[in-house]
Write a structure and sequence with these properties.
Keywords: Membrane, Transmembrane, Transmembrane helix. This protein has 81 residues and is mostly helical. It contains 2 helices and no strands. It has one domain.
Length: 81
């Protein structure tokens, strides 16, 4: 009986923390850069909750990650000479 209550409480806490983590990832990391880039490249004010903003934000992180990987690879190849 007490295990059911404790399990229910932990399930609620885990669901809340998961929701908060997802919200932080979507809002700050994807929609933030996507909105800023779309706002700079378009005349109209983009919809902050639009699909294009999320896509541009995701694309921003992919390009940033690939660029960082390329720079690190180039630096590490140059130091092995």
């Amino acid at each position: 009986m007490i295990e059911d209550v404790a399990g229910g409480i932990f399930k609620v806490i885990a669901r809340f923390l998961g929701y908060m983590l997802l919200e932080i990832i979507l809002e700050l990391l994807l929609k933030g850069p996507g909105y800023f880039i779309c706002k700079q490249l378009t005349k109209n004010d983009p919809n902050p909750d639009g699909v294009i903003v999320v896509f541009i934000g995701f694309l921003f992180w992919v390009v940033l990650g690939l660029s960082a990987y390329g720079i690190c690879s180039a630096i590490s190849e140059g130091s092995n000479v």
